[in-house]
Each structure stands twice: as structure tokens, then as C-alpha cells.
Amino acid sequence: MTTDTQKIVLKASGLVKRYGHVTAIDGAEFELREGEILAVIGDNGAGKSSLIKALSGALVPDAGEILLDGEPVHFKSPMDARKAGIETVYQNLAVSPSLDIADNLFLGREKLKPGILGKVFKMLDRKAMHDEAKAKLSELGLLTIQNIHQAVETLSGGQRQGVAVARSAAFAKHVVIMDEPTAALGVKESRRVLNLIKDVRDRGLSVVLISHNMPHVFEVADRIHIHRLGQRVAVVKPDTHSMSDAVAIMTGAMDPNDHPAGAFAA
Amino acid sequence: MASSNAKPATAEHELVAASASGDFAKFTAEKEPLLTRIHHFFHRYPTAAPAIVLMMAILVFTSIVGERFLHPFNMSLIVQQVTIIGILGIAQTLIILTAGIDLSVGAIMVLTSVIMGRFGVEFGLPPVLALGLGLFAGALAGYINGLLVTLFRLPPFIVTLGTWNIFFALNLWYSGSQTIRSQAIDAAAPILHWTGQSIELFGARLTYGSLMMLVLFVIVWYALNWTAWGRHVYATGDDPAAARLAGIRTDKILRSVYIVAGFFCAVAAWALIGRIGSVSPQAGMMANLDSITAVVIGGCSLFGGRGSIFGTLIGALVVGVFRNGLALSGVDVLWQDFTVGLLIIIAVGLDQWIRKV
């Protein structure tokens, strides 16, 4: 009951995207509430990547509507979505390996020095960027130290993921979308990233988590959006549905309406 | 109220989480073996290797040739000899940082030198205007390269292999294969010879062309390291897909890089006229390969995103020192080429090793 009164941050309805005669999104619905972690699961080829791309501006849907805070938005590029306060952590991390941590955090939104140095000579304010990068990383418990000048390629997979998550968490105003953030990580590193995702939610941001890892999904998600054949077929909660229910719905083995809690239990 | 956070299902996982070590994403400095530390040192300071080679080369040649080699006049002569390759090297560095390569730098240089010469001398345009037109033509030639690379997604190697031939043919056609003599330039457009004039400093003779090269290196160093544009150039060469996702318009960056590179080729043309005195459509035939040599020896990675602009200056100086030192040692010219070839292979081998962190 109470959850129904929660504010809806990001909503999409009737989204369609076709590639030639392949329909990747077939009239999909999507709803993300304020301050929740919404997991999006679906089998390979279910169209969840396309859905996420449409929400993050990486593709322009053929039809349908996206509402951010109730206002219709039309993203033409990931930059548009970022400006609107939606940050995405991509599966391939989207970090520049040879640049250092601070450079990566501020890539594409560098800070310039105040006054004539910045205005005329376009001089970067490296000190401010490094200080802020340090602050952001330690805020998320990612930085026990030190060398913010380290090139990202010298970091482990988990550390890189940490940088990518920190970047999105630092700049997102509304929504953080994470595409398979634990896919390439070991057990311990996954654990830290999962905690990080909860931290991000507890800071008041809404999180969309795309993952194939059911235990991870059921651990952190508040609600689970199940995608199948280009459509949302069910939205469930970890306490109404079991992992095997979710997998059965996702693969088509179970009709979501046959479940005692119904297809839209959440 | 909306306590969707508290789910009983997570409790046992949280216990596991609590017992897990928290050292994820700690950037700690551990004690590492010497070779690893050397490795990391070169990785962090890509200019260090060519700088060490340069210093060792100077030491070795001083001990072989003696005082004569270290004399300010000889040192400044080396700087004069590397001026043109140095300026072209700036252009080449920018392109190589974006994971491209520019085979047309020499052809753009010769073509623009002919344009400067003909407009200044034969058409009697105000010399400054002739110079400006030449610089503009260089930027335009670079823009054409950039358009072909970004619009048609052609590999830079192929694009510039094509435009190298095209620009060179245009140069032969436009110049009518005629050389413009030095006296004619002095009479009509002396500004084109400004780069060849020099000042004496403690027995060293520095040409304005050489000084201009040094100033350009500083400007480009600033642009690459202290502006967002520079960071974006590195990011574009490093991983273009990641750069695009970070909101960088990589095509725009690439085009700007090719324009700037073309402009610097025209600046090199100005330095070329100052150095050889005349305008010759046959000059600078090997310049494109020499500029790549300087960049590679300077520690720039051909795979993009890695390298420093001063590395190229040092790379050009390394070549200059080896050629000058071997010549003063009385070694046959062919061994100069042999040595440069060795240096290239060692430099690329070192880069491969450095990139494996």
C-alpha cells in the first residue's frame, strides 16, 4: 500500500524499437520509484539492453514515451540523459584505461579554473578535480588512499568498477543505471559493489540494476522487473516470488498470472 | 514507512558481507620487485626512456668526438637540423595519440610551401597574406584528412596514404615542378625567410624557426595536459567507445586534431623555406617517415592514447644527435640509417612491454 504512494521518478510506456524486422522492444512499460533499487531481469535477447539504452539515451525509441519526474523527455544521446540527471554504468565500464582516476571521473565534464585562466586559456582546475575525486571516492568508502593519479588500467576489475560506480553516483541527480556491474567480478569484489549499490540507494538515488545473477538481484532489489520478448511481463518482489519463480517467468516456463501473488505483485 | 530496504531475505547475506574483507578498491602501495617498479616508472613517465637514451647518446658521442661535439655551436646545429621534423612531429604526435597515423604530413608541408612561395613571389600578394594563405591551406588539407577519417570511417593509414599522393601530385602540378629561388623570395616576401634568421647566444646559433618550434611544443603541451580538449584527445585514442559513452564527441575531436595537424605542417613549411632558402617541390620527401620515427622513439604508442608531446621533441633530438655524432665520428652515412632503424625497433619493443601493466 505504502509503496504505491512512492513518487515515480522514471516511467516509460509503449516503447517500441525495431531493427529491420527484428523487434527489440515491443511496447514495453517501465516504472522506477524514488529511492528504490529496481532490478531488470530477462533472458538473453529479451530486449532488456535495448530498454536500458532507450532510458539512458544510447538509442532513440521508434515509439513510446519516457517521463522523468512526470515530464516527457526525448534523449538523443547519453549526454542528454546525463544532463537530465540519469547516469549509466556500462557493462564495458566506459573508462579510459590510460587516464588517471580523477581524469576519468571528470571525463566529459571537466572543471575549468576560475577567472581568465579558465575563460581565455581554458585551463583545467586539476587540483579541484583531484580533491573532489578523492572526496567522492572516500564518501563511498572506496578510497583508503592515495594515488588518485594512478592510471585506471593499473587497477583491478573491482577497483575499476568502483571508479565507474563512483563516477555515476557522484554526478547522478535522479537515477543510476547499472548494467551487469558484477559480471566480471570475483566474490569479494561483487560483495563490495553490491554494498555500493545499496549505499547509492540510501543516498536517495533511484537505481536500475540489470543483472543475470539471481542471488545478487534477490539480495539487493526492492522490486524486480521481468522482461520477456520485448515486454514487461511481471514486476515482483523478492518476498512474494522465489528465484525459481522469477526464472520460470523470465524463460516462459510459468505464466506470471498463474502465480498466487499475480504478475504485478509490486 | 516505505521500508522496502528491510528485507529478511538479505540478512544472511549481510552476515557474509560483514565477514568479507573490506580491502576492495584500496589503492595501496605494496613493495614490488625492482623490475616491476621500473616497469611502472616507465608506464607513468613515458618520456623517461627516450630522455635516458638522449643523455647516454650525448655522453657517448662526447667521449668519442670530444669537445667539438658538446660545443654550443654544434648543439644548436643539431637543434636546427631537427626543427622541421620536430614541428611535423607535433602534428604526427597529435594524430598518433588518437590511434591514427598521418603519412601526408610531408606532402602537406611541401604543398603549402609552394602555395606560400607562389602567392608571395609570383602573384605579388602582401607577404603576410601569402603566409596566412599557406597556413590556411595546411589546415584545410588536414580537414580533408579528418573528414575522410570520420565521415567514411576509413583507416587513417589508407586515407593519408591516398592524400599523400594527391597532395604531392597537386604540389607538382601547382609548382610546375619549378623551384622558386631564394633571391626572389628575399626580394618579394622576406617574411618567408624569417624562420631562417638566427640569434647568437653563448656561441650557439638559434634560428627563429627553432625557437618557434620550442614555443609550439610548449603550447601543445599545455593544450594536451591542461585543457579538456587535450584530455579528450587522449581518451579518444585510448578507447573511442568509452570516450563516446563519457559524452565526448570523438568525431569532432578527431577532425579538430587533423585540422591542427595540417596547420602545423604548414608552419613546418614556413620553417622549411627559412632553412633551405628556396621553395622546392622536391623538398621534404622523407619528412613523413622521419616524423613518425621521432614520435615512436619519443615513446608515443602507435595504439593511441599514450605518450607525451615532449617525448617527440626528445625523439627528434635523439635522431639528430645520433646522425650528427656518427657524422662527426667519421662513420659512413649508411650506419646513421642503420642506427635509426635499430632505435625504432627498440622503442616499439619497449612500448609493447610498457603497455603490459
TrEMBL record, chain A:
SMART domains: AAA
Keywords in alphabetical order: ATP-binding, Nucleotide-binding
Keyword ATP-binding: yes
Entry protein name: Sugar ABC transporter ATP-binding protein
Pfam families: ABC_tran
Domain of life: Bacteria
Recorded GO MF terms: ATP binding
Organism: Marinobacterium zhoushanense
CDD domains on file: ABC_Carb_Monos_I
Keyword Transmembrane helix in record: no
ABC transporter domain mapped to chain residues: 10-254
UniProtKB/TrEMBL annotation, chain B:
Listed InterPro entries: ABC_transp_permease
Residues annotated as transmembrane: 47-65, 77-97, 128-148, 154-174, 206-224, 253-273, 294-322, 334-354
Topology of this chain in the membrane: Multi-pass membrane protein
Top-level taxon: Bacteria
Keywords annotated in UniProt: Cell membrane, Membrane, Transmembrane, Transmembrane helix
Presence of keyword Membrane: yes
Name of this chain's protein: ABC transporter permease
